Amino acid sequence: MFFAQQQHHHLSSNSISISSVTTKRIRQSRRTFSTGRAAVVRAAGAADGGDGNVKFANNKAEWDAVTGGNDGLIAVQISTKTCGPCKVIYPTFVGLSEEFAEKATFVKIMGDTDTESRALMKEWGVRVVPLFMLWKNGEKIAEWSGAKPDVLRENVTSAM
């Protein structure tokens, strides 16, 4: 929908007349895109755009509150507001949080919300997003970057 609106704005700014056939094609494309996107999101486990069992921690105090005393597996996704790949992989992270709710804690950290979140990113040495970490018994056991759903699933399941 955003693409069609952006394209429409571009066309009108150049004073080009849009025929009814072109308009109809844009509407059909928009419907197909919306339907296809909904299917992908639904398959990933976030049909309602929700966060499943994902908890949020954007600074050290919130991290301690969410993970304190947890000796089990903690899966972390570190993102920023403007990171496109972070948004693409997030539904997979949500789906895993629902699938493994009894076996692991899933935490999302937005690294650019305020000075405290930036300080946490600096402390952890985060230089690229999306960045994933796995913690167990209070120790970081794995870290990788990239928006590859199969790698995310494989790393989480192998750490259980």
Mean residue pLDDT: 78
Strand order of the largest sheet: 1-3-2-4-5
Sketch the major β-sheet: 5 strands, mixed
| Helix/sheet category | alpha/beta
- Low-pLDDT runs: 1-27, 29-48
Order of helices and strands: HHEHEHEHEEH
What is the total number of structural domains?
2
If you consult CATH, what is the topology of the largest domain? Glutaredoxin
Quote the distance from N terminus to C terminus.
Answer: 40 Å
Structural write-up:
With 160 residues, the protein is of the alpha/beta class. It folds into two domains: 43 residues; 106 residues, Glutaredoxin (3-Layer(aba) Sandwich). The protein is 51% helix and 19% strand. The chain is built from six helices and five strands; from the N terminus they run ααβαβαβαββα. A five-stranded mixed beta sheet has the order 1-3-2-4-5, with helices on both faces. Strand 4 and strand 5 form a beta hairpin. Helix 4 runs parallel beside helix 6.
Distinctive features:
Thioredoxin-like_sf, Thioredoxin, five-stranded mixed sheet, Glutaredoxin, disulfide bond, 5 strands, 2 domains, 160 residues, Thioredoxin_domain
Task: Give a brief description.
This protein has 160 residues and is α/β, with parallel strands linked by helices.
Secondary structure elements and their pairing?
Layout: H1 2-13, H2 20-44, E1 54-56, H3 60-67, E2 73-79, H4 84-99, E3 104-110, H5 115-124, E4 131-136, E5 139-145, H6 149-159
Parallel strand pairs: 1-3, 2-3
Antiparallel strand pairs: 2-4, 4-5
